[in-house]
Design a protein that fits this description.
about 425 residues; alpha+beta; seven-stranded mixed sheet; four-stranded antiparallel sheet; 16 helices; elongated
């Protein structure tokens, strides 16, 4: 098929906007409509009104042919009858024609905002259906845009003919395929694979049943008690649970944003626990959780499910600087006597905060919170930059501390520096940045 696409040239429309009239045998009318749909990669709908049974007459005519009205019955107004109003086409049978089983078709192409037959118009129009079917077949084989693009490379002779032609009259169908066509087909393909039911709730339950049939594990819960529509859906396979218990002493908890939507087109979030495999040394995703909320409760129920149902409790959890994740981890693992309401937590499961996220938060806040006091003369851009570099350097010294004693020492240095510059700069705002 790829050879066919690179050697089959695009047919340019040559009509000037005047009505086009064709005569088509009755038995070929429906096939002709299908051919037009394939050429223009669209769908034609019968717009014939059902008043007076006209649509019924059309269907009877296509099935059984023309039947002359009984003697004495009046003919309809005009010379046309059995009108077929497809979207973009008007077809009718002329009572005065010799062969009553021929259909006359009239249509007029409308060209608004583009020049018919131009290079841009030819390459940017809708792809023929057989081209879209080719793309769909490649996507179902798990080929990406890069694979498909290499597959459709033009033959050297074909490319030379195109370049030598001043009018570029012969453009192969393959040049019309771009990234957006492949992306659209991939999006539809993934949606069909991921959504087992139009309803989000029913689709998740079907996925749960499917996971159980493959001896996996899942948990799902409606969390309307916290927020209307909130839910969580967690799942993993047997091998993931095995590796989680073997390698999950230290795990990384993270989420992706805007990767999917729920049944109301609101954003959903995919949370993952990743552990480093002791054999390969690489990170492996070992359990997932989908939710439509950034609150702590879906994470809390997910971690409690892993602890209560599967006996998994990590020693350390690496996260970004998310307060909701910290709250969920503490309530799941670090409560005193399982009393969540006490607000007192132990350090049974240590929470490690990613240095990169901490550093990013510091840099972002330094730009807004390291400001000169209104009572002091205005500072130059160079002075502001130097102060920001000093503040960030002192903070990074705390981050590099190897022991709690070293950290306290560096933190004391930072506090002292904040006090020293307090006359000209906002010291309290700066000290708040060092808390993480």
């Amino acid at each position: 098929m790829e050879n066919y696409l690179t050697t089959t040239f695009i047919t340019r429309p040559e009509n000037d906007g005047t009505p086009i009239t064709l005569t088509i045998p009755r038995l070929e009318y429906r096939d002709w409509i299908k051919d037009q749909e394939a050429i223009y990669n669209c769908r034609f709908y019968n717009k014939t009104k059902s008043d007076g049974g006209r649509r019924l007459k059309n269907n009877e005519y296509l099935e059984h042919g023309y039947i002359h009205p009984p003697p004495g019955q009046k003919r309809g107004r005009g010379n046309e009858s059995f009108i077929f109003n497809e979207a973009g086409f008007t077809a009718f049978v002329n009572n005065d024609s010799v062969d009553k089983n021929m259909i006359m078709v009239q249509y007029r192409r409308k060209h608004t905002g583009h020049e018919p037959g131009s290079n841009i118009d030819t390459t940017s129009g809708a792809l023929p259906r057989f081209v879209m079917e080719f793309i769909q077949a490649q996507v179902e084989k798990s080929l990406t845009w890069r694979n498909i693009k290499h597959m459709l490379r033009l033959d050297k002779d074909v490319l030379e003919n195109i370049l030598d032609s001043e009018d570029y009259d012969q453009l192969p169908q393959s040049v019309r395929i771009d990234y957006h066509h492949v992306y659209y087909v991939m999006k539809i393909h993934l949606r069909r694979q991921s959504q087992l039911h139009p309803s989000m709730a029913n689709s998740l339950m079907k996925w749960g049943t499917k996971i159980q049939h493959k001896r996996g594990y899942f948990a799902s819960k409606n969390l309307d008690r916290y927020e209307e529509g909130m839910f969580f859906f967690a799942f993993m396979s047997q091998w993931q649970l095995k590796l989680l218990k073997e390698n999950g002493d230290l795990v990384s908890l993270d989420s992706t944003h805007k990767t999917c939507v729920d049944g109301t087109n609101h954003d959903c979030y995919l949370y993952t626990l990743v552990a480093r495999c002791r054999i390969t040394g690489k990170g492996k995703p070992l359990t997932w959780m989908i939710t439509n909320s950034q609150a702590q409760y879906p994470i809390l129920y997910w971690l409690q499910w892993l602890k209560d149902e599967h006996g998994y409790v990590p020693s350390r959890v690496m996260i970004d600087d998310s307060d909701t994740e910290i709250a969920a981890i503490n309530k799941a693992y670090n409560t005193v006597n399982d009393d969540v309401s006490s607000g007192t937590y132990t350090d049974n499961v240590k929470i490690l905060i990613c240095h990169w996220h901490v550093l990013r938060a510091w840099k972002k806040n330094i730009l807004t919170k390291l400001t000169a006091k209104p009572s002091t003369p205005s500072k130059t851009l160079k002075e502001k930059r130097e102060m920001r570099e000093v503040a960030l350097s002192l903070m990074m010294n705390m981050m590099r501390a190897e022991t709690p004693v070293d950290f306290d020492l560096e933190h004391e240095k930072f506090e002292t520096w904040c006090i020293d510059v307090d006359e000209e700069w906002d010291g309290p705002e700066l000290r708040a940045l060092s808390i993480f």
